[in-house]
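Sample intake sheet
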Amino acid sequence: MRFAKLHGAGNDYLYVNGFEIDVPDPSGLAVRMSDRHFGVGADGLILALPPETDADLRMRMFNADGSEAQMCGNGVRCLARFAVERGLATGDTVRIETLAGVREIELHRDGDRIVKGTGSMGRPRLAAPDIPILLEGDRVVDVPLTVGGQTLWMTCVSMGNPHAVFYVDSADDWPLERLGPKIENHKLFPERVNAHVVEVVSPKEVIVRTWERGSGATLACGTGVSAVCVAGVLTGHTGRAILAHVPGGDLEVEWPGEKAEVRLTGPIEEVFAGDWPDD
């Protein structure tokens, strides 16, 4: 089975052309291929499939533990490049159907080479049932959460998938590997949650570390930094446009207004292509 590995700011996925290849057990395949010791190594598996709407193609995304996710900001951006370079879409604007809705990605080139993408991440959902979190209210802003014997203050945002944002003095020193799994699986989140710790450098600049549900600590999370941008506005920590420094690089995010869609810009790199043996 032919596949390619791409990453956006270190958030890496394995891509399969589902127009040509049938993958009967994508969840199981994601677990085997994503293993960084016995497989290829990745944060998950993404399939490029024929669309069911007027989009150019459809995305299905599976985390490294085999669970299916609604959306991935870095993954969908890389999928746009994968699709164009393999003839599944044409032009430099690609419409991709996801479980969180259709996302439009604008590709940017350096000469003939696609190096970056800008995409709509959709409108944030802020009401507790839409995240979902087992609380009440139209917004979940600076709400206490007790994990590991500590009380943390979180702001929650759905970008088609659930995110909890925590502001800290030092993102690098925060015990993400210890508390991340506890937050991800906290009883308040019926679909689990992505956890992000944020250090504010200025109103226009932040440092972000992410514990991603189903994948653990990742080098970047596109929908996550989108949620961080929204949370920054809701809490007053940052403005509507930020530069997010993540372990894998930099991402630019903007939320122009309360009823606007979040826009994310970041790099796209293809690492290699290869063949996975038939099971």
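Comment: The helical segments are 26-34, 73-85, 176-184, 222-235. The longest strand covers residues 101-110.
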